[in-house]
Amino acid sequence: MNIVEIIEKKRDGHELSSQEIAYFVESYAKEEIAEYQASALLMAIYLRGMSNRELSDLTKDMIATGKVYNFSDLEGIFVDKHSTGGVGDKTSLVLAPVLAVCGLKVAKMSGRGLSFTGGTLDKLESIPGFQVAISEEDFKKQVSEIGCAIIGQSNDMVYADKKMYALRDVTGTVSSIPLIASSIMSKKLAAGSDVILLDVKCGDGAFMKDVESATELAKRMIQIGKDAGKVVNAEITSMNDVLGSMVGNSLEVLEAIETLQGKVHNDFYELCVHSAVTLLQSSGICTDEKAAHDMVVKTLNDGSALAKFKEMVASQHGDTSVVDDPSKLTISDKTIEVLADTSGYISKIHVEGIGLLGCALGAGRMRIEDAIDHSVGIEVYKKHGDAIEAGEALCKLYYNEVFDESFVKQAKDCFTISKEPVEVEPLIYTVL
After folding, report:
1. d(C-alpha 187, C-alpha 66), whole Å
2. Comparing C-alpha atoms, which of 69, 65, 24, 62 is closest to residue 182?
């Protein structure tokens, strides 16, 4: 086959055959196609799009360039949840133990934070000793025995995606919905779960800024999953507020543990319960929504989900005493509250700005090689629509070595205050 002819075909808006897509992916993974030719094809895909058939072929061929996990030798229904990334999203830390108590198997492979979005692995590593790199044998053994494990993505999974993402990052093709969909689903399908829930976030603190583009992405990913024989649902959720109140690694683990202790009942709690109910229904464990809801809430109220989380922490060599007493987490005692200048109502929150400020404080990274400080972050006191008085605190900054007086102004600028009450939008727009 001729890569130039394949580029020209997609450039002119035609569908690529299964054979042409397989040739491109395999040859690119083997470095038999030049970067500039791969760049040209990615841009053609960005401009011309892909059919569902093309997209499923692309995803399948990308999966074939790396390791694929298989849990068919183990009993149980294996489920996974993927979030497209947001600010304050520590849902997996609560969802995994809740679902395990309810009888599902959660074999979760997570990533690290980059830019304004946090990473589940960074959060878990706030727990002293917690190991996110364990062998495949130990991973499968842990999931089989206690029902859940959260580890880092294997370096040998979906090799073509790693190469392709790095190229997209420097060629202006990151925001292509077909390429985003194939990148996410190649990793999810290679991870081997039977049932997948996609949390597609939209709004100020998400990569997808509006409901329409988030819905389009969700539909493309659902179709890829169905074509691969998996059960896939998606929830479109708002990221126009920080999820929960904490941003930063130890701070988010604190909020997750307090949620498992039954102490927190905010929007974070609401999303955890909703996601768990959706997975219980889609996996067939509990077809009735109310019964599923009652089952989930019971695990949070009776301490069984907390006990399961502690079991997971112990199995992955973490210090379980922080689960009993989360005040043992390393959280900076250097803080400053950011006060409102005027009275009124919170009409807009620049959530991405809060995430970027967290990075500036040291809680996140702008480059993959950056070190992070688990002890710093931001506690957000106010949500969309909340009333605020002049002089009342909007948020609190936790800092260490890295602090600049401009951070207070940056934090204040993330909150828009109006004189009139504002309509509050839903946390969950729809479920597909």
Report:
1. 10
2. 62
Tell me which CATH code domain 3-49 carries: 1.20.970.10
Residues 60, 82, 220, 350: which is the catalytic one? 82
156 is catalytic: no
Query: Rounded to the nearest 5°, which phi and psi values hold at 64?
Result: -70, -10
Task: List Cα–Cα distances, 272 to 30, 191, 244, 357, in angstroms.
Answer: 41, 22, 11, 25
User: Among the options 83, 92, 176, 183, which is catalytic?
Assistant: 183
* Fold entry, domain 78-324: Pyrimidine Nucleoside Phosphorylase; Chain A, domain 2 (3.40.1030)
Model pLDDT, residue 115: 66
CA–CA dist 45, 10 (Å, integer):
7
161, 194, 241, 267: the catalytic one is 161
Question: How are beta strands 335-339 and 393-398 bridged, if at all?
Answer: antiparallel
Phi then psi dihedrals of residue 108, to 5 deg: -105, 130
**Angle 209-211-213 (CA atoms, 0-180°, nearest 5)?**
70
Q: Are 111 and 153 in contact (CB under 8 A)?
A: yes
Q: What is the pLDDT of residue 405?
A: 85
Q: What sign for the dihedral angle of Cα 184, 229, 9, 163?
A: positive
110 is catalytic: no
pLDDT for 265-315, tens place per residue? 999 999 999 999 999 999 999 989 999 999 999 999 999 999 999 999 999
What's the rounded Cα separation, in Å, for the pair 90 and 97? 13
Please, what CATH class does the domain formed by 335-418 belong to?
alpha beta
Give the active site residue among 9, 60, 123, 187: 187
Q: Where are the alpha helices (DSSP H) in 198-266?
A: 211-227, 249-260
Please report where in the chains the tokens 């809060």 appear, as a residue: 354
Take residue 237 and report the two structure tokens written for it.
């959720």
For the question of residue 168 being annotated catalytic, the response is yes
Matching fold, domains 78-324 and 335-418 = no
- Tokens 């009652």 found at: 294
HSE-up (13 A, CA, CB side) for residue 231: 13
Q: What confidence tens digit (pLDDT) does each residue in 75-116 have?
A: 999 999 999 989 999 999 999 999 999 999 999 998 876 667
**Distance between CA atoms of 300 and 291, rounded to whole angstroms?**
15
